[in-house]
């Protein structure tokens, strides 16, 4: 292959899935207890169990976007080797990472005018980006050209539907996404936010689900309502330290689609949603009605 397909660690793909499709994943940084860690798909610097245990203990976590130097150096390694690059990462609706990437791309094109460097705003977040990367990675591993892959990503990104249910209201409170009062009443009434992603890649609070028993049915309802050609589709189930919920969701979905792919939510997104989050990702029509 004369080009490299790249993304960032916010895609929340496991190392096994990354190996399957051959994508290169740029690590992303998070900070806990005055220490900095890079998150890779293989979780080499901190395991997910340790990360979520620390969150449950009330230890704060903060994330930072990939900086200019990291993009420049990572891309230049491949350009020097005579490879072209196509990159798509976390949506501009959630992070400034893409804009930083474009600054590095602009400068690299001046140094390597004969090389092709393509950067695409995914309009997707977390495991939604993961699904986009996984499906595009299948095309990549099957031998698609860089222009064919670019066209596929640009055509598919807006079709990625994201539905998340957040369990940890305290983490949303710490991040300033809900008030302390909302968190207190939400926990008392067992209310869980149902989130999605709009056409610009922004995370949107769509509705509230009351009671743990209603989480999986709500996610399945949106899958059945919004999916395109569900019977022949790949559906991704993602969770933040909630393997039991993920298995329950997988069981509810299995038989409705061609394949269910499981993955874990890492520290980049886990910092903001906390433990317990459950998500279903699929191709269809983005519909923000509850």
From TrEMBL:
Keyword Membrane part of the UniProt annotation: no
InterPro entries named in the record: DegV, DegV_C, DegV_domain_contain
Keyword Repeat belongs to the record: no
Gene3D superfamilies: 3.30.1180.10, 3.40.50.10170
Keywords: Lipid-binding
Coiled coil: none
Function statement: May bind long-chain fatty acids, such as palmitate, and may play a role in lipid transport or fatty acid metabolism.
Name by which UniProt lists this protein: DegV family protein
């Amino acid at each position: 292959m004369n080009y490299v397909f790249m993304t960032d660690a916010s895609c929340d793909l496991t190392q096994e899935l990354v190996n399957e499709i051959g994508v290169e994943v740029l690590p992303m940084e998070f900070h806990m207890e005055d220490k900095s860690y890079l998150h890779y798909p293989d979780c080499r610097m901190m395991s997910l169990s340790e990360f979520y245990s620390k969150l449950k203990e009330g230890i704060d976590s903060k994330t930072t976007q990939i900086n200019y130097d990291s993009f420049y150096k990572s891309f230049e390694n491949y350009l020097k080797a005579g490879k072209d690059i196509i990159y798509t990462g976390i949506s501009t609706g959630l992070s400034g990472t893409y804009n930083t990437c474009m600054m590095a791309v602009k400068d690299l094109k001046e140094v390597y005018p004969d090389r092709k460097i393509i950067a695409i705003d995914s309009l997707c977040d977390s495991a939604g980006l993961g699904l986009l990367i996984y499906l595009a990675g299948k095309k990549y591993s099957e031998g698609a050209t860089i222009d064919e892959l670019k066209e596929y990503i640009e055509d598919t990104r807006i079709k990625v539907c994201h539905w998340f249910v957040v369990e940890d209201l305290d983490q949303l409170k710490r991040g300033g996404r809900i008030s302390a009062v909302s968190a207190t009443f939400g926990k008392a009434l067992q209310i869980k936010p149902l989130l999605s992603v709009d056409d610009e890649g922004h995370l949107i609070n769509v509705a509230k689900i009351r009671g743990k028993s209603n989480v999986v049915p709500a996610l399945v309802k949106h899958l059945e309502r919004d999916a395109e050609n569900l019977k022949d589709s790949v559906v991704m189930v993602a969770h933040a330290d909630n393997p039991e919920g993920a298995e329950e969701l997988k069981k509810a979905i299995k038989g409705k689609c061609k394949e269910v792919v499981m993955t874990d939510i890492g520290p980049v997104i886990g910092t903001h949603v906390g433990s317990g989050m459950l998500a279903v990702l699929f191709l269809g029509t983005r519909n923000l009605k509850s």
